[in-house]
Design goal:
The complex is a heterodimer of chains A (243) and B (229).
Chain A (H helix, E strand, L loop, with lengths): L1 H17 L10 H15 L3 E7 L8 H18 L7 E4 L2 H17 L11 E3 L7 H13 L2 E9 L4 H10 L3 E3 L5 H10 L12 H5 L3 H29 L5
Parallel strand pairs in A: 1-2, 1-4, 2-3, 4-5
Helix pairs in contact in A: 1-9, 3-4, 5-6, 6-7
Chain B lengths: L12 H21 L7 H40 L6 H22 L13 H35 L3 H17 L7 H37 L9
Helix pairs in contact in B: 1-2, 2-3, 5-6
The chains are: A alpha/beta (243), B mainly alpha (229).
Chain lengths: 243, 229
């Protein structure tokens, strides 16, 4: 079953990548907001804080961490032209290495490697709620003239603490979480949150290469496939067919 | 007439090797964790052993990475010490960090002993007394942060979705409270949590799972950024 799902996803991704020019992606409000938010922070002479929460390469959220790292790169590439450093924070020490690499690549893209500081990628101990990270992100926004907090990854209800800081001190916030509690808080505190699976297609909107567009199209196609399968199963169950 | 062309990306040997290594290891781990039926049983068993070994190696890397994390934390906060008055928080953090490390080292070395062997260690007692209390206090603040967020949500813009969100929140909160006479509220809350919330939760989780599959495919075919540039 696992291999069948992977094969279907691979096939749709490759076919869609070949036909990428003909594919129009559905608009995602969060990605428009991301570009606006980052530009506003850079033009206002403020830094941008990007956090991957408790996404970790060594547990079941490994691919969420990879997707978050891609968003970190995309956002940092846009913010690395600013005067103040882009800050990244994680709670998984292995993911710290990836965050460090993506930040460095973003500065390299802008030919500003001399402005990159190794301490801009930071690790904070995580717990059940990553409260240490939430406190650190809030403190960093205030102490280091942060203009925006971009949250991509696994956050719980502690996201509300970061949001509270951004609201009180008039900073921008673009939240996302793959955890239900965090997602609910993100919806409550922001007008433009990224919703659950939208994180995984970020590159298609911010750097639309054929493979990324193919991935986004595959994700949509698989979603419709799951919806159809669920409806068929529901109808069959309603009709009394034993499955 | 000139024709604009996208410059071809040069294949770097290092990136190609890294991609080949990652794809190979990813496939071995996948086959080890989820044996493929068409493969011979002996091969599946060998792949399973190999994948377990790889996972153990990852655990070792995780332990080493934790040390790097602590070094990173120390370096970041040592640099913050110069900033007054914010540096005071970094100073507290560093003192606590080294204090706990010292305490644990003394315990492990047998220098610091409290009571009999069954007594809880000092470092664990410190953890319970300080960190758990502080985390509980912060978690308590979450309630106020969430209520304020809900208030802000309605103040900024009233949409049907925002109204629905607040209505659901109020019903669930009231459903938990022992209001006299409002016996129907707990059953409404139960229905709300079991039917629409459960359905929405599953929808979100399925969406995330599909996203994870698509990113997994991108990594498996070596198209992740790690292998490029």
């Amino acid at each position: 079953m696992t291999y069948a799902i992977l094969l279907i996803a691979l096939l749709i991704t490759v076919i869609s990548a070949v036909r990428a020019r003909a594919i129009a992606l559905r608009p995602v409000v969060g990605y428009r907001a991301l570009q606006r938010t980052v530009s506003a922070a850079v033009e206002g002479g403020r830094s941008v804080h990007i956090s991957l929460g408790s996404s970790a390469l060594l547990d079941e959220s490994a691919l969420t961490a990879m997707a978050g790292a891609e968003m970190l790169y995309q956002a940092a590439a846009r913010a690395s032209g600013g005067d103040l450093p882009v800050i990244a924070s994680v709670t998984d020490p292995v993911t710290l290495g990836v965050a460090h690499d993506r930040l460095r690549r973003a500065y390299l893209l802008r030919n500003r490697l001399e402005a990159f500081k190794p301490t801009a990628a930071r690790w904070y101990p995580g717990g059940m709620l990553s409260l240490a990270l939430a406190a650190a992100v809030g403190a960093s926004l205030l102490d280091e003239e942060g203009g925006a907090a971009l949250l991509f990854g696994r956050f719980g209800a502690e996201l509300a603490l970061i949001a509270e800081t951004t609201i009180r001190y008039d900073r921008d916030l673009l939240p996302h979480s793959t955890h239900l509690e965090g997602q609910a808080v993100a919806y409550a505190v922001s007008e433009t949150p990224l919703l659950a699976e939208e994180l995984f297609v970020g590159a298609a909107y911010l750097e639309p290469t054929p493979i990324h567009i193919g991935g986004a199209a595959a994700q949509d196609a698989l979603r419709y496939l799951v919806v159809i399968v669920l409806i068929v199963f529901a109808v069959l169950t309603f009709l009394g067919v034993n499955l | 007439m000139t024709t604009s062309r996208t410059p071809r990306r040069r294949l770097r040997l290092g990136a190609a090797l890294l991609a080949a290594l990652t794809i190979g290891i990813a496939l071995i781990t996948l086959l080890g964790l989820e044996p493929a039926a068409p493969l011979p049983a002996a091969l599946n068993a060998n792949l399973s052993t190999l994948s377990q070994l790889l996972i153990q190696l990852v655990a070792v890397i995780g332990a080493i990475a934790l040390l790097l994390g602590v070094l990173n934390l120390t370096r970041v906060h040592a640099a913050q010490l110069r900033k007054f008055p914010h540096g005071i928080y970094s100073l507290i953090l560093l003192i606590t960090l080294f204090g706990v490390v010292l305490l644990r080292a003394l315990e492990r070395g047998g220098v610091l002993r409290v009571g009999t062997g069954d007594a809880p260690s000092v470092s664990l007692t410190v953890l319970d007394a300080a960190q758990v209390a502080v985390e509980s206090a912060l978690a308590g603040l979450l309630f106020f942060a969430l209520v304020y967020s809900a208030f802000r949500l309605m103040r900024n813009r009233v949409t049907i979705w925002n109204a629905l969100f607040i209505a659901a929140l109020v019903i669930v909160l009231l459903g938990f409270s022992p209001l006299g006479g409002a016996t129907f509220l707990p059953s409404v809350r139960e229905w709300l949590l079991n039917v629409p919330v459960n359905a929405g939760t599953r929808g979100l989780l399925i969406g995330i799972a599909i996203g994870v599959v698509v990113v997994g495919v991108r990594v498996l075919i070596g198209r992740d950024r790690t292998f490029r540039e």
